[in-house]
Amino acid sequence: MTGGALARVISHRPGSRPAGDAERCDLCAAPAEDGHRHLYDTERTEVLCACRACALLFNREAAGQGHYRLVPQRRLRLAPVPTDGLGVPVGLAFFVVRAGDEVTAHYPSPAGATQWDVAPENWRETIDRCPQLATLVPEVEALLVNTARGRQDHWITPVDDCFRLVALVRREWRGLSGGGRIWPAVERFFTDLAAQGEHPHQ
Q1: 1, 48, 82, 137 — which has fewest CB within 10 A?
Q2: How far is CA 52 from CA 40, 97, 126, 147, in A?
Q3: Helix or strand or coil: residue 167?
Q4: Is the entire prediction scored with pTM above 0.85?
């Protein structure tokens, strides 16, 4: 998840919008209420804010029409998923299914999100071990993995959660090793995710 989407999330970090400047729907310019939904534009690779009316136009049943996809709100914690064959060089990464069943992997870094392609046979093996991954909605949901510092966080999440994590890492990273702020911030991110998500395997 690179380019416009990443730049957009970073530019909308807390405190970047002037006080009293209401967020607007990117489709019709109507006010976007707190907790509004997002659309993913597959042509421009951007996340767009959507008011309630516009979000209703792009519900999941209409996801195959045009280049806008309504970003789901499912946050589902999984039992630990073996990711040995997915080529993850670090403990923090997310995986998105693309059109044509291609899978791209990303890991947050100080420069943004580094990306690589996952071998199809390796992804199929991962689904065999965790069949719930077959339910990922292409383009707009991700497998999010955090095994850094002994953690075992494995989630199905909306892609905008992943964008926020990328923005957080880029914002908080200091020096060559990340500094003292990055890992507490990542811990808070996953604590908040756990407070919002479902935990069916527990």
Answers
A1: 82
A2: 15, 26, 36, 36
A3: helix
A4: no
